[in-house]
Amino acid sequence: MSDEKTLFEQIIAGEIPSFTVYEDEHTYAFLDVNPLAPGHTLLIPKHPYERLNDMSAEEAGEVFGVLADLVPAVEAAVGADASTVAVNNGEEAGQEVPHVHWHIIPRFEDDNVGPIHRLFDGADLDDDEMSDIAAEIASGLSD
Ligand code: AMP
Asked: What is the mean pLDDT of the segment spanning 27-51?
C-alpha cells in the first residue's frame, strides 16, 4: 500500500468536497460524483484497503452492517424500486479507485439496464469442471 492518500481518504479528510450521507468510526458514505442514477452512493471503509480481499471478515462485517441500513435509505430517498449493489473488486474488474468501495445504484422498473449478468458472455463448464472449482474454493476457505 502506498503512503500517498487515496482519493477517497482525501474525501474523508475533507480535502476534496463530497456529498456525505453517513460517517462512523470505521465507514464513510457519499454520493458518487458521476452518478449512474440519482442517489448513486459509495460506501467505503475508512482504512484504505485496496480490495475486499485485503479485509478481515470482521472489518468487512462492519461495512456490511452499514450497507444493510444504507441500501433501503438510498432507495427510499429517490423513490427507487430496487438497487444494484456492487464492488469492482480489482483493476481487471474495472476498479479505478484503489480503495475498496461498494456502489449502491438505485434501480427503477423502466431503467432498461438489466441485471449484472448482462456484463458477461457466460462460461461453459461441465460437471467435472464445476466440481473441481467448488472443491478448490472450499479448500481455500479452510486454509
Ligand atoms: P470504480 O470504477 O469502481 O473504482 O468506481 C470509482 C467511482 O468513484 C466512480 O463511479 C467515480 O464516479 C467515483 N468518483 C471518482 N471521484 C469521485 C469524487 N471526487 N467524489 C465522488 N465520487 C467519485
From this structure: 98
